[in-house]
Design a protein that fits this description.
The protein has 226 residues and is of the alpha+beta class. It folds into two domains: 137 residues, Sufe protein. Chain: A (Alpha-Beta Complex), CATH 3.90.1010.10; 61 residues, Arc Repressor Mutant, subunit A (Orthogonal Bundle). It contains eight helices and seven strands. α6 crosses α7 and α6 packs across α8.
């Protein structure tokens, strides 16, 4: 006599049409994907935010951009992030992770920039109820984009000692400016030493770095523009 298996198997949310491999998203991930928090539909007005940061490339896949505004007289007198907005070209995991990150940073009166920098991808995933193993890297995107925004904020406030440098060579030790910062300046339109200095002030207080800066500008111009 045949017995009917009554055990329910949860349907995959995403599955490959070739291998059949797939994964299931938590209800929290689905909620933040379908109704993301703090998503910015239109580009902000000039001066609307105190800092912005971006990681990724449209040519390579996921792109993440974050903006935040700090209240200098936040709760208990500490400057707190009162508004954080974001945009991304990415998958459900990237959208949900950034949505949750924006909630974590601004809830309960907001975090300081230093506190927000201590949020780890594991903290975001825990609040989301987990992410598929192959999608863990998506929780890192908002972490890196926020770090870029925080560095830009610290730079604008003259707090160069707080700038976080990961895996890049520091060119201007006084301002903590790296070869990656110079590369970004060239990609954003800088063509000469003067152009780069207008963006970064690099080499202004450290003239010994200027020869290396000029070599990097030439290298990146040839690399990207021939």
């Amino acid at each position: 006599m045949k017995t009917k298996n009554t055990k329910k198997i949860k349907k995959l949310d995403v599955a490959s049409s070739h291998s059949g491999e797939g994964w299931i998203y938590s209800d929290i991930v689905k909620s933040h994907f379908f109704k993301p928090h703090n998503f910015l539909a239109k580009l902000p007005k000039k001066g609307e935010f105190d800092a912005e940061g971006q990681v990724g490339s449209p040519q390579c896949g996921d792109v993440m951009k974050i903006w935040f505004k700090v209240d200098p007289k936040g709760p208990k007198g500490y400057p707190k992030i009162k508004k954080l907005k974001w945009r991304t070209f990415g998958c459900a995991s990237a959208i949900a992770a950034t949505s949750m990150f924006s909630v974590m940073v601004t809830e309960k009166g907001g975090m300081t920039v230093d506190q927000a920098l201590k949020i780890k991808p594991q903290d975001i995933m825990s609040r989301l109820g987990g992410l598929p193993v192959r999608k863990v890297h998506c929780s890192v995107l908002c972490d890196k984009a926020f770090m870029q925004a925080a560095n830009n904020y610290f730079r604008s406030k003259g707090q160069h000692e707080k700038i976080i440098v990961l895996g890049h060579k520091v060119i201007d030790k006084r301002l903590n400016i790296t070869d990656h910062d110079i590369e970004d300046a060239v990609l954003e339109g800088a063509r000469t030493l003067l152009d780069v200095q207008k963006k970064l002030k690099v080499g202004v207080g450290d003239p010994e770095a200027i020869p290396e800066i000029e070599q990097l500008i030439k290298f990146y111009l040839e690399k990207y523009y021939g």
